[in-house]
Write a structure and sequence with these properties.
By secondary structure, this protein is α/β, with parallel strands linked by helices. The protein has helices at residues 22-33, 36-39, 42-56, 65-71, 86-103, 133-139, 165-179, 190-193, 203-210, 254-268, 287-302, 305-321, 326-341, 347-364, 369-382, 390-400, 409-421; strands spanning 113-117, 124-128, 148-152, 156-157, 185-187, 214-223, 226-235, 241-250. This is TolB-like protein.
């Protein structure tokens, strides 16, 4: 039987004697929110997921009562904690639920990580529950023999035009996606890695915060039809550069460069490359379509109603010209879904369009992890699951495409987004 840590214990992931990697914390978070005691309380799941992810990202300064009230409990800027005690009340409920999970047998007997919340604080603490954390690091997809954890940081824009950020972000995201196909490699989700965009932080600290053994970083210079991409892989513990290369090609060769970077990682880590199609499998009909798609996705990642509407306009124009572009349809579904989550549109009003676009994207490319997860999200979310559960989401994915693993990094990050926001569908 486990007990929550006392206030004197050093249990934070970045200060413990044996820190818990981010990947292990995320795995434990998934276990907790899908347990019987939590799965029926979407509000507490959302609260816990928010504070855990912010702590992993190193953003503990934002875990204050006022910001939590607005970001988790949908309060407005007029929120007054002296009148409305929602955050304190829910924090007490969350502490009680966590205590029950660990002390009353609601969790699995072999749970490796404790997630706790001390009284008077909204910053969670993480610590190992046994004396052999290395074993669990290996099992949870963090460090350890046979399974290396890697993060792809946002590539720096060195182009004459600062508006080329969308192109640099797209390349980083494509490389991230391609690496998820490598067996034996755990890949940090884009949402976590992109927290460090524009930040000047020592690579050792980046590795500690993300729980990554290796980091890929680089730069992009795009001038007319000429492209120069520099990429390097760094060991986070030592700061040693393991590999570096500069690619000077024409813009049309961007997919080949992404493939070479992914293959270089696979070769250095002696990982098997599945199949014969390669790791970068773009469905873009041509470079113009790909560029327009990256611009739209860049807007989607900004996650403001204005940017999402602009992305939808761009994607609708794109599918008029290229009606068989699978990911464009899937991203239209995602953009409309996010607008519903943010309350900018009625979820019920856009449901038909969201469903049609998700199904169209999947029909065009049923082997894509992205088209599968978008359609799975639509079916699990819009179509009325009373309690959104990881196992339900995984089951939908597997029914759509048995070859796509629910453990895929993209799938896990998509699940977290949908699970956190499930209550907000108007």
């Amino acid at each position: 039987m486990s007990t929550l840590p006392s206030s004197s214990e050093k249990s934070l992931a970045n200060s413990a004697a044996d820190p818990v990697p981010a990947t292990a914390v995320r795995d434990q978070l998934a276990r907790v929110v899908n347990s019987p005691g939590f799965v029926s309380s979407a509000r507490l799941c959302r609260f816990l997921t928010h504070i855990v992810n912010r702590t992993i990202d190193g953003d503990i300064d934002s875990l204050k009562e006022f910001s939590i009230a607005m970001e988790v409990f949908d309060r407005t800027s007029e929120y007054d904690p002296n009148i409305d005690a929602i955050v304190r009340v829910e924090a007490r409920r969350l502490r009680a639920k966590l205590k029950a999970y660990y002390e009353e047998g609601q969790g699995a007997a072999a749970d490796p990580v404790l997630i706790g919340l001390r009284p008077g604080s909204y910053v969670p603490v993480f610590r190992w529950l046994d004396t052999q954390p290395a074993k669990h690091r290996e099992e949870s997809g963090a460090t350890g023999p046979g399974r290396t954890c890697i993060a792809v940081l946002p590539f720096v824009n060195m182009s004459p035009e600062p508006e080329q950020d969308y192109f640099c972000d797209g390349i980083s995201e494509e490389i991230t996606s391609s690496l998820t196909h490598l067996s034996g490699l755990s890949v940090i989700a884009r949402t976590s890695a992109f927290h460090f965009k524009g930040a000047s932080i020592d690579i050792r600290e980046v590795g500690q915060r993300l729980g990554a053994d290796l980091v890929i970083e680089g730069s992009v210079r795009k001038a007319g039809e000429q492209l120069r991409i520099t990429a390097q892989m760094i060991e986070t513990e030592s700061g040693h550069h393991l590999w570096s290369e500069t690619f000077r090609r024409e813009l049309k060769d961007v997919f080949a460069i992404q493939e070479e970077i992914a293959q270089s990682v696979a070769g250095l880590l002696r990982l098997r490359v599945p199949g014969v199609q390669g790791l970068v499998q773009s469905s873009a009909p041509n470079l113009d379509a790909y560029t327009a798609f990256l611009q739209a996705r860049f807007l989607i990642h900004q996650q403001s109603p204005e940017a999402l509407q602009a992305a939808l306009r761009q994607l609708r124009k794109l599918v008029e010209v290229y009606p068989d572009y699978a990911l464009a349809y899937s991203d239209m579904a995602a953009a409309n879904g996010l607008l519903a989550l943010f309350g900018a549109v009625s979820g019920r009003e856009v449901y038909s369009e969201v469903k049609a676009n998700a199904e169209r994207g999947y029909a065009l490319d049923p082997e894509s992890g992205e088209t599968c997860t978008v359609l799975a999200g639509v079916r699990a979310w819009f179509e009325g699951l009373l309690h959104f559960q990881q196992q339900n989401y995984d089951a939908v994915i597997q029914s759509l495409s048995p070859s796509v693993s629910p453990l895929d990094t993209f799938i896990q990050s998509r699940f977290r987004i949908v699970a956190i926001q499930f209550e907000r569908l108007p």
